[in-house]
Amino acid sequence: MKSRHIAADAEAQVHVIILDSGEEAFAALTRFANESGISAASLTAIGAFERATVGWFDIASKSYRKIEVDEQCEVLSAIGDVAVGDDGKPSLHVHIVLGLADGSTRGGHLLSGTVRPTLEVVLTEVPATLRRRKRGDLGIALIDLAATRD
Amino acid sequence: MKSRHIAADAEAQVHVIILDSGEEAFAALTRFANESGISAASLTAIGAFERATVGWFDIASKSYRKIEVDEQCEVLSAIGDVAVGDDGKPSLHVHIVLGLADGSTRGGHLLSGTVRPTLEVVLTEVPATLRRRKRGDLGIALIDLAATRD
Amino acid sequence: MKSRHIAADAEAQVHVIILDSGEEAFAALTRFANESGISAASLTAIGAFERATVGWFDIASKSYRKIEVDEQCEVLSAIGDVAVGDDGKPSLHVHIVLGLADGSTRGGHLLSGTVRPTLEVVLTEVPATLRRRKRGDLGIALIDLAATRD
């Protein structure tokens, strides 16, 4: 992983992050957010994975059903955000659409994805603190704007 | 192709909008745009719907063919824009990709979607007025840059 | 719904580009990037194509396998970036998801797409120079942050 801050101004900061073959995208981007101390950001990405695991949220069981995509696939879209979790650390939330060799697609909540050969991420950081709070009724953490600070 | 530089420097405003279970996304975001007086913006979103109706534009009939997605689905991507319509009010245009329980996907022009449990929207407003004008030849309104003002 | 204004940003330049029926999107956006002298940008787009050709990258053959989508389709998402290639000219990289009449989807690396009736592109230019360099081991050019300048 390499990262570079490519624009600066009074407020929003744009980062480009490039992941290389073999890197697991969710862990790498979480590490970037932690090391950069990011407390609020949005991101988009394109590239390709050699395999991925995505999730579909099952309201009844309050958990993600895992879906394995065990083949080389284009990352057609990745859209996500960074907020601060209950543990005080940056928490990443990303959804992806993957394109298979025949042009069909799969997708879900990104659990893990192994990059091959690249993932190009544009992350826009804003000087605020978005909060993601665990919701006991749902079993997952959601952004809580009432707890968000500038 | 027409292009227009619509904003520079310390001008864009970033809004985070969180929708809750039971809210209809198209109506809620249109209401937000109206109440905030937004005349030009782009947006991305992720989250989940308990059901949605999307459209595919049929050139021959000049109308959207409705496609019902009547099951819990991840909102894998939502990308859209806000412009001002012929009635002088903010007009929302959003396309979405939805992920089903088996990882397959559906998508189209967003007509309506009922949130469950959240929709996380990042909307970037710029200080310009994009215009969407009804095109009699097509039956729908398209952005008209010639009518756009800074 | 809750909303919060979390930033007012700077330095980046926002362009809106509207393509019309019959225009080939990849060529038109490449021409725009060249004519505008863009050296680093990200973009999103929605709209519709009357047909498109997308690619899936085959690691073994170091080339894109072509997938033809020969029917009217919604452009559900287009996400991409602009960097400067080895020839010193702006180089466009875009991935798309397309929605067919039955709500099913196709997608891949955008090779070409013929617009019908519109493609609405929001391109955010930043004052840096991203470099895309041909990788002999892969057969394609990837963004190289080590060669990127502010």
Highlighted features:
two-stranded antiparallel sheet, disordered N terminus, mainly beta, 9 strands, homotrimer, 150 residues, seven-stranded antiparallel beta sheet, 1 helix
Give me a quick take on this structure.
Three copies of one chain form a homotrimer. With 150 residues, the first copy, chain A, is mainly beta.
Proportion in helices of chain A: under 10%
Please provide the count of β strands of chain A. 9
What is the quaternary state of this protein? Answer: homotrimer
Which class do the helix and strand fractions of chain A yield?
mainly beta
> Could you give the order of the helices and strands of chain A?
EEHEEEEEEE
Inertia-based shape of chain A: globular
**Any low-confidence stretches of chain A, pLDDT <50, length ≥5?**
1-10
Largest sheet of chain A, if any?
Answer: 7 strands, antiparallel
Termini separation of chain A: 29 Å
Greatest interface by residues involved = B-C, 61 and 50 residues
Q: Output mean pLDDT of chain A.
A: 91
Radius of gyration of chain A: 16 Å
Strand content of chain A: over 45%
Number of helices of chain A: 1
Report what the structure shows.
Three copies of one chain form a homotrimer. The two termini of chain A are 29 Å apart. Chain A is globular. The first copy, chain A, contains one helix and nine strands; from the N terminus they run ββαβββββββ. In chain A, 53% of the residues are buried. In chain A, 8% of the residues lie in helices and 60% in strands. Chain A has 150 residues and is mainly beta. Chains B and C meet through strand 1, strand 2, helix 1, strand 3 and strand 4 of B and strand 1, strand 2, helix 1, strand 3 and strand 5 of C.
